[in-house]
Amino acid sequence: MTxxxxxxxxxxxxxxxxxxPTAAETLRLDGPLVQxxxxxxxxxxxAAVAVAVDGRASRDLRVSADGLxxxxxxxxxxxxxxxxxxxxxxxTTTRTLEIARRTYQVQRIDGLPRRQVTPGAAELRRxxxxxxxxAGVRAGDSAGAHFASGxxxxxxxxxxxxxxxxxxxxxxxxxxxxxxxxxASRGTPVMAAAAxxxxxxxxxxxxxxxxxxIDHGHGLTSVYAHMSGILVKEGQPVAKGAPIGLVGATGRVxxxxxxxxxxxxxxxxxxxxxxxxxxxxx
Length: 282
Ligand SMILES: [Zn+2]
What we know:
This protein folds into 2 domains: 23-98, Immunoglobulin-like, CATH 2.60.40; 106-275, Glucose Permease (Domain IIA) (Distorted Sandwich), CATH 2.70.70.10. Helix content is 14%, strand content 38%. It is built from 4 helices and 21 strands. Strands 9, 12, 14, 15, 16, 18, 20 and 21 form an 8-stranded antiparallel beta sheet that branches. Strands 4-3-6-7 form a 4-stranded antiparallel beta sheet, with no helix packed on it.
């Protein structure tokens, strides 16, 4: 008969503790599965997440230390996409999401200055430079999961432009509207819709006027345009609800309002789906 020494038995039980699974394999997806929606995923720390759209090559997503990840659904998102999670323990979970279709309004805006609707060569050069700066911010994939603060309306006011509407400017069809227009009087404070880092603060963009962009992490950014004043500097951390600027009428506008956009990398999502009904109504 063999008697296991006490220290050996202790070692065996420690070993059993270390090989036992330490985190449950989880996959939870919060957010509306609808075109323009933002989905916040929850998995266990250490998992790897990839998303594939209609059989196209899958894309690896950043997963926070808490197991959070983001998927943005564009205005014209296809009817389904596949989320594949490789769990820390080796198992894989695959889930197919059915994305509900939306119908969008047609919006006609007349009376805009001609050079803003059909800009000349000099204006086009400015627009191109502005767009490159905006695209540079949107290409970022920073690690802080600031979006976990949740979202709030940046200003209260009547909605004068909704997400996704097809726009006809001075009779010329243009790209769909990619954010919300909130009407408020000039000088009304504009708040950060969620926590983040100020990624762009420029007083003179051709189309968007005085403009601030905030990086909320994991490719999610928000933009605040047409302001009459900027209260933050690039690189500055902001809390959800912190004042960042003042409502104005700079850039391509017909009156004072805030254009508020939210983008997951280059994909525009509907800010209205992040915050619930407007406190003022439509
Ligand atoms: Zn707008």
